[in-house]
Amino acid sequence: MTTATAYGVRHRVAVALHAEDPILRSGVTHQLRHRPEVELLTDDEQERAAVSLVVVDQVDEAALLVLRRLRHAETRVGLVVGRFEQTALQSSIECGVAAVLRRSTANADRLVEMITALSRGEGVLPGDMLGRLIDHVGRLQREVLDPRGLTLSTLTSREVDVLRLIAEGFDTTEIADKMSYSERTVKNILHEVTTRLQLRNRAHAVGYALRQGLI
User: Fold this and answer.
1) Is residue 3 part of a domain?
2) Are 101 and 22 part of one and the same domain?
């Protein structure tokens, strides 16, 4: 679902909010209630959500239960979180989370940016979190796989190139320009990767490639 058409007519993104803490729920609701890009759904309407926001203090077992449940729903998942550990990042991506925003920076504009990116099938991950994940995977490759002469390769070279550019923050149009492909070809490459490896979205695919030391 997009937020605008070629004629400038806005379509609101249907958003379900998952926050057990009433204060967290109230804060995010207040930020989004009057935004024209967003339609906040009631609890009874959550099945038609295009985007689901999970708002938590930290990614604990209760939060992971919510994320695992949403992984099987027809919705794109964003996480708004207070404290975030390295292991939580990996677990979140494995649960299909496509976007992460720190609660301290989650003003209305940032929340709407994340929601609209998710509605376009894009991912959002703060640069320092991506850097930590890359460092972790690099250590895994050096300390575990390299000494055994192992490398896990389930991606073609052009799939790796596309995922690397996504990890560097480029969007579909920019990737197409850099690789001299059409945007449709780039989207087809991403679709092939996510379908073949049973991944939820492009952020999940980038997380997979990072964990496997492929990018």
Assistant:
1) no
2) yes
